[in-house]
Amino acid sequence: MTNMPDQLYLLGNVVIMVAYAAIMVAIVVPVSRAGQLRTNKLAVATALIFFSCAVGHGFHALLSYRNILHPGHGSPSGWSWSAALWDAFTAVVGVYYWTLRRGYGVLLDKGAMYVDPWRQHRLAAAGERERAARAAAENHRATLAAVVQHTADAIIGSTPDGVITAWNAGAERLFGWTADEAIGRHAFIVTDGGGTGEQAQLLARIRAGERGLSYEAQRVHKDGSPLEIAFTVAPIEDSAGTVIGISVVARDIAAAKEAAERQRAMQERTHQAQRMESLGKLAGGVAHDFNNLLAIIVNYTDFAVEQSHGDAAVRADLAHVRTAADRAINLTRQLLTFTRGDAIQPQDVDLNVAVAEVQTMLERTIGEHITLITVPSARPLTVRADPGQIQQVLLNLALNARDAMADGGTLVIEVNTAELTGAELEMQPQPAAGHYARLLVSDTGEGMPPDVAAHVFEPFYTTKPRGQGTGLGLSTVYGILAEAGGSINLYTEAGVGTTFRVYLPLVTATGAAPTPAPRHDRPPRGDGRTVLVVEDEPALARVITRILGNAGYHVMSAANGEEALTADEQRPCDVLLTDVIMPGMSGRRLAECLHERRPDLPVLYMSGYSNGLLGTTHILDEDIAFLEKPFTADQLLCKVYDVLAATADLDDAPVAT
Fold first, then answer.
1. Is 35 exposed, middle or buried (0-12, 13-18, 19+ CB in 10 A)?
2. At what angle do helices 387-403 and 473-483 cross, to 10 degrees?
3. What average pLDDT does this structure show over 450-458?
4. Is 520 exposed, middle or buried (0-12, 13-18, 19+ CB in 10 A)?
5. What does the pLDDT read at residue 512?
6. Quick one: pLDDT band at residue 654, thresholds 50, 70, 90?
7. How far from 88 is each of 9, 97, 99, 584, CA to CA, in Å?
8. Is residue 155 helix, strand or coil?
9. How far apart are CA 443 and CA 414, in angstroms?
10. What pLDDT is attached to residue 525?
11. CA quadruple 361, 366, 368, 372: dihedral positive or negative?
12. Res. 276 pLDDT band, cuts 50 70 90
């Protein structure tokens, strides 16, 4: 009969051998699958231990088997029981270890036999950094997507062939197409017929390798309205440099272009005003000196006429001289009007009445080849202006229109109202906001090219042949309107015609009509009263002395203020007649010095500048007695008489001796 311990010993060694071998396999297989046979030394060593144990127990089993086959040749019986019990215990532990692998996952996780705590900390930190980087990248992508989606500009993505792949909210607002409507369609949806070919060429240039394109073009809204767009187009490339898409940034520039045009117009208007101001100063200075010369020419011509009673030929020649002088006087007055300094008499004027009066004059002079049409306002429109200057404005504009219609045409003068905001473009000068009466003078003539229209209000600028125009007509209109607080606008088109729009502030309440100055049929005589004449131009001083002397005045003449003070000390005068602008002491300062002696001394100022210009520069007060050069003998005598009459009763006034 077989010995029982030997059988148990054999069975225990076989079981342990199998268990160790299974554990070894359980370690080697997952470690091998994880690719850690060379790196996970602990797992490999453990596998070797279990392998050696399995082999050792295999030898034990083999010895036990031999003892069973050949009894009497094995180990002593005591050793056999001890080894058998220990091996049985080891077998029980191996079986117990084997049962734990499923409950706790020991040796089953991929490469999870053992992980170094320090290395696991590093792996955990690396994993955390990777997760943080992924989260940051995701946040960046989300932020970028939000920026792209909500930016005011249109951002569009497309394939290299132009099929839309991305369409943000800015594109929806700009072009009117929603993203659902646009994506998948060709970019031609925002082009008109002419822009399709242009866009196809741009796509081809991008595909050919051009990096970035910036350009402006006209596109269309979904509703068909035109858009002015600025584009920036760039290719989207992969890592190999192949163009896989196109990015487009589009911006509406209509408002920006309008603002730039408005800014340009404002700058041009400012430059125009500066040019007009400079020309005005020049014109005023020229007119002042010219008026002195004209005063001499006119009055010496009158003297010659008086002394040529018996010679008709001489009188005829002098009449031509006087006619030419009168024309020069009118030109000079137009020049002063342009400087906004002409002496005017503003009053309430009904534009309907003014247009009717001008119509009567034009019907006799404009010519039968011109059809004149007037369209008055349905109600009276009252403005505050000089009536003569209003007529001058209308006549200048109407005659210019006549000259532009050499072959005939239609001239329309219309009266109506307008509301201005003060921000209108192409107005000269710029008007304030308010209610305005408007005069429209339109013709069907040749019109003007832009380079001519830009200079029409400048003095002496004319396109008429030499001798047919002075270039002062429209500059005079400009000066009159500027003085009256109005403005003018020109619209012209070559070959079609021209329209001038004149704006004058409306008057809501009319005042009393001004009292006209007294008129004299014959210049009153001086009856020996003394006039102190202060004039730094000797030739003009001689003319004035001669006129006053012939009219019965006693005349004292001085070339400057110092001489005048000395002359008045020697013989007090009854009236002071002085030039305003003189070297050394001005006429106003001279009058102040004489008023310290006699506060009631009447003073008459004269100047080649107008009283309006002198008043705006505070050289003279607006209510002083003033005589504008050039003047005739009758004008001088009447003005001197009026100044004396305003101070005292001439019949009772004592005569200076």
1. exposed
2. 150
3. 75
4. exposed
5. 43
6. very low
7. 8, 14, 17, 143
8. strand
9. 12
10. 84
11. negative
12. low
The C-alpha atoms of residue 327 and residue 469 are separated, in whole angstroms, by 13
According to DSSP, residue 431 is labeled P
Buried b (16+ CB within 10 A) or exposed e, 601-635: bbbbbbbbbbbbbbbeeebbeeebbbbbbbbbbee
Q: Stretch 583-594: mean pLDDT, rounded?
A: 89
Helix (H, G, I), strand (E, B) or coil at 106: coil
Helix (H, G, I), strand (E, B) or coil at 541: helix
Least confident of 252-261, 308-317, 610-619: 610-619
Higher pLDDT, residue 195 or 591: 591
Tokens standing for residue 152? 């005011």
Within 536-632, residue ranges assigned H as helices are 538-550, 561-570, 587-597, 611-616
| Residue 55 backbone dihedrals phi, psi, to 5 degrees | -65, -45
Q: Distance (Å, rounded) from C-alpha 173 to C-alpha 192?
A: 19
Res 478: pLDDT: 82
Q: How confident is the model at residue 218 (pLDDT cuts 50, 70, 90)?
A: confident
CA dist 71 and 1 (Å) reads 10
In angstroms, the Cα distances linking 437 to 71, 154, 377, 487 are 145, 46, 10, 11
Q: pLDDT of 377-421, one tens digit each?
A: 989 999 988 887 888 888 888 888 888 888 888 898 999 998 887
Let me know: does 425 contact 390? Beta carbons within 8 Å.
Answer: no
Spatial CB neighbours of 210, under 8 Å, sequence gap ≥ 6: 235
Tell me the sheet residues that pair with 213. Answer: 233
Token digits of residue 483: 């003085």
Cα 337 to the center of its chain, rounded Å: 33
Residue 613 confidence (pLDDT): 46
pLDDT digits (tens, 9 = 90+) for 280-333: 666 666 766 777 788 888 888 888 887 877 777 887 888 888 877 777 776 676
DSSP of 171-215, one letter per residue?
A: HHHHH---HHHHTTSBGGGG--HHHHHHHHHHHHHHHTT---EEE
Residue 410 and residue 443 in contact, taking contact as beta carbons nearer than 8 Å: yes
pTM recorded for the entire structure = 0.39
Which of 362, 361, 380, 384 lies closest to 371, judged by CA?
362
Q: What is the DSSP string of 369-415?
A: TEEEEEE--SS--EEEE-HHHHHHHHHHHHHHHHHT-TT-EEEEEEE
Bridge-based pairing state of the strands 487-493 and 427-428: antiparallel
Q: How confident is the model at residue 341 (pLDDT cuts 50, 70, 90)?
A: very low
Reading the block at residue 645, the tokens are 């009459």
pLDDT value of residue 578: 93
Q: Which two tokens stand for residue 107?
A: 């040796």
Nearest-5° Cα angle at 243, 242 to 244: 105
How many angstroms separate the Cα of 355 from the Cα of each of 143, 182, 383, 604? 70, 61, 13, 37
237 neighbors 191 (Cβ within 8 angstroms): no
pLDDT for residue 555: 93
